[in-house]
Amino acid sequence: MSPRKKEDNLLIREERRRSILDAALRLFANKGYESTSISQLAKEVGISKGLVYTYFDSKEALLKSLVFDLNEMERDFWEDIQNEDPSRMLSNIFNGYFNTLINNKDKLRLISALTFQVEKFDFIQDLASQKMSAYLHLFEDLLNKIGFKNAKDEALLIGALLDGIAMQFLVIHNDYPLDKFKALLIQKYCPN
């Protein structure tokens, strides 16, 4: 048997890192960050506790990496929804947002849980503030282009509605009328 190539080792390392992050997402989202130990995480992945520390210096470093990985996935979302027509782009945002809610419940649970512990993690508060400011600015810009008179206030309303919808969906799950809310938002904010 010949020794592994450097590229093979890098691939194995990235796959293991990804499996640790995936398990952390599941455990942190469902058991909570505080209630999840590195030992539980290692057991979930099928590796030793020490090997987890080979990839991440601490549980908080693992959390930071997970949050920033989620942030990278969000960038892909924003690339996918771009459109020259502001009404179409806003519709794409709403459609993408609701699809994300349905398909990423663990991510939503984790982000929501961390939101309520924001004072514990400065990096999350900073990231959340930056994101909220960027979203509100984008909504305001799109609504201005569409022709809304109070675009800034409407942008604030959209932000609050999306946050509230996400929280309610986490609690009520499949009985929550996501399709109805999506249709109402598109009807109100995305004229043809």
- What is the general shape? elongated
Sheet-strand content, in percent, reads under 5%
Radius of gyration: 20 Å
- Number of DSSP helices? 9
- Beta-strand segment tally: 0
Specify the helix fraction band.
over 70%
Q: How many domains in all? A: 2
The biggest sheet amounts to: none
Structural notes for this entry:
With 192 residues, the chain is an all-alpha fold. The chain has two domains: 1-61, Orthogonal Bundle (Arc Repressor Mutant, subunit A); 81-192, no CATH class. Helix content is 79%, strand content 0%. It is built from nine helices and no strands. Helix 1 (6-31) packs across helix 2 (38-45), helix 5 runs antiparallel to helix 7 and helix 7 (122-146) crosses helix 8 (151-172). The radius of gyration is 20 Å and the shape is elongated. The termini are far apart. The model has no long low-confidence stretch (mean pLDDT 87).
Q: Topology of this protein?
A:
Layout: H1 6-31, H2 38-45, H3 49-55, H4 59-80, H5 86-103, H6 105-115, H7 122-146, H8 151-172, H9 178-189
Helix pairs in contact: 1-2, 1-6, 2-3, 5-7, 5-9, 7-8
Structure at a glance:
It contains nine helices and no strands. By secondary structure, it is mainly alpha-helical.
